[in-house]
Amino acid sequence: MELRLLRYFVAVARTEHVGRAAEQLHVSQSPLSRQIRQLEDELGVRLFTRSHRRIRLTETGRWLLAEAKPLLERASAIARDARRVAAGELGRIAIGFVTAAMATGLLPGALRTLRTSHPHLAIGLTLMTSRQQSEAVLRGELDLGIVHVAPGPQLASDLLVEEPYALAVAADHPLAHRRAIKPGDLDGQPWITLAAEGGRDRLLAACAAAGFVPEVVAEVPDRASVLALIAAGVGIGIVPSVRQVGDVVLRTLPWFGATNRLWAIRRDRSPGASDALVTAMIAKRRRRG
């Protein structure tokens, strides 16, 4: 049964007049009469009794009218909601992220913006490594990933963060207030590094390129632990920030070439919730810059 035929039937049933129903539907009267006959033939029942001047609903017609109204309303709602899902206003968005996505403040701020613009959207968040996210986005399990390393051309990627690293030392460390810090000053110093996603390997490579070799004494799971150990005087470290943090002094190193980067990855840049979230994060980054 075609929904179009049901709509024609409801219009005629409400007016019990083919002419007036035809005017409401903006169709000709004769084709409308044929459509009603077609519906009756498909169902094998008579929906109207017909006289020379008017038509009236049969008992079956009255039953079908009561059933058809909510069905057509639901069909209209489905069409409307499908458009809203396509626009990212309804449904669910699955987001993967690395720890740094929260530490920068970009993702929480963008999620607040998304909640305002898409209040009926369900949001799922999962902490994952960059590699896990890339694979999940390719499989369609994630709509959006926030990663340290941009994947190849198989996924769309947008740079969200690129900021210099700073040297983090305890407030009473000899390097805390030295006028200038050179690579040789850091050679052989005890270092705290992140254990996640090859943080140690990336650190050693960046330090070697800068001309010194750190002695890693601890690998910890998050930035807060790095700062806590540095504040306790266990070692020094590199963090993606240039702001004072508690009892830790942060010193810029103009000669340290590595930067902290975060990328947004997705299968494509189609309009929707993912695109709105990336746009919000990029806008927040620009305001911060």
Question: How would you summarize this macromolecular structure in one to three sentences?
Answer:
The protein is α/β, with parallel strands linked by helices and about 290 residues long. The chain is built from 11 helices and 12 strands. It is about 45% helix and about 20% strand.
Structure characteristics:
289 residues, alpha/beta, Arc Repressor Mutant, subunit A, D-Maltodextrin-Binding Protein, domain 2, 3 domains, five-stranded mixed sheet, three-stranded antiparallel sheet, 22% strand
Helix and strand pattern: HHHEEHEHHEHEEEHEHEHEEEH
Structural class: alpha/beta
What summary fits the major beta sheet?
5 strands, mixed
Here the CATH topology of the largest domain equals D-Maltodextrin-Binding Protein, domain 2
Structure description:
The protein is an alpha/beta fold and 289 residues long. It has 3 domains: 3-86, Winged helix-like DNA-binding domain superfamily/Winged helix DNA-binding domain (Arc Repressor Mutant, subunit A); 93-162 and 261-288, D-Maltodextrin-Binding Protein, domain 2 (3-Layer(aba) Sandwich), CATH 3.40.190; 166-257, D-Maltodextrin-Binding Protein, domain 2. It is built from 11 helices and 12 strands. The protein has helices at 3-15, 18-25, 29-43, 59-86, 99-103, 106-117, 130-139, 183-186, 199-210, 223-231, 273-288; strands at residues 48-50, 55-57, 92-97, 122-127, 144-147, 156-164, 166-170, 190-194, 215-220, 237-239, 248-252, 259-266. The strands form 4 sheets. A 5-stranded mixed sheet has the order 4-3-5-12-6, with helices on both faces. It has a 3-stranded antiparallel sheet with strand order 10-7-11. Helix 6 crosses helix 11. It is rod-shaped, with a radius of gyration of 32 Å. The mean pLDDT is 86.
